[in-house]
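Course exercise 7: structure representation. Students receive a sequence record and must write out the corresponding structure in token form. The form below is the worked example handed out in class, using TRAP transporter small permease protein (158 residues). Read each field label carefully; the graders check that inputs and outputs are placed in the correct fields and that the protein name is recorded exactly as given.

STUDENT ID: A-19
EXERCISE PROTEIN: TRAP transporter small permease protein
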Amino acid sequence: MKRPDAVVERVLATLAILIIGVISLGNVVVRYITGGSFAFTEEFSVFLLVLLTFAGASVALRTHRHIRIGLLERAVPARVRPIFIIAQGLCGVVLLGLITWFGGRMAWQEYQWQSLSPGLGLPQWWYLVWLPVLSVLMLFRQCQLTLARLRGDFADDA
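STUDENT ANSWER:
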């Protein structure tokens, strides 16, 4: 049996969904018993959902399960498909490169400004630093996927 790829992202996504479930359940129980709720759950849940989204998207990229439009690619002759694959890969690399660049700048600015989160007063960059880190992982997975598709490892399933 082949070992799953994108292990780092799979572990991050699993931990994120597990922690969201635990803190949400804990919040429901506390609210039911006391009528109040934990203050940190919303801030952490939003952060963990973003982390889960990027980690899941990275896994989807690596396994060629990302939402895509393959109609045009399937309509062209087989000898032209590599051009479409390269164009798709380049578009993904440009987009993820921009997300990495601007996400990194945003996290750096929040670090320099010493901004605090509105809910708990934690440094805002603690949440934002994950954006460029995970987009770099996605960028790497995009390159892996493009090369694998050019080798013919993934068929474009209709």
